[in-house]
Design goal:
126 residues; alpha/beta; 4-stranded parallel beta sheet; 6 helices
């Protein structure tokens, strides 16, 4: 069986029938991300929080727009750890198009104040 076969075929059908932009989420793909992008016709790729920033910047971002990859546990923790993680992502990806986002869904116990802090820091980034 071809790696990425069924998603590749389904996405090709969607792309041929519409103008929709497609973001793929190959969670846990790690260093297989370049192969995924060669095989699957997505317009952008969502990165999980385990994807190393430098690897993504150097090997993934030149190929597609990236989305991610803040660790949801860092958002839950907040404070200085959150500030450092936000800055690291903005610094790594800010020179090319990207979508700032979590590397996976928001955890239910995440304080709204942490989300507000995240949004403010991203919006005020120059």
């Amino acid at each position: 069986m071809e790696l990425f076969g069924p998603p590749k075929q389904k996405l090709a059908a969607i792309k041929s029938a519409s103008t929709a932009r497609i973001i793929g989420f190959p969670r846990g793909a790690g260093t297989e991300l370049p192969r995924y992008l060669e095989a699957v016709p997505v317009d952008a790729v969502g990165l999980d929080w385990m994807t190393e920033l430098r690897f993504a910047r150097d090997h993934i971002q030149p190929l597609r727009t990236i989305q991610g990859n803040l660790d949801p546990l860092v958002l839950l923790a907040g404070g200085v750890a959150l500030d450092h993680a936000i800055e690291a992502i903005l610094e790594a990806f800010g020179r090319r198009p990207f979508i700032f986002n979590l590397g996976h869904g928001i955890l239910p116990d995440t304080p709204i104040a942490h989300v507000e802090r995240l949004i403010a820091r991203v919006r005020n980034h120059v």
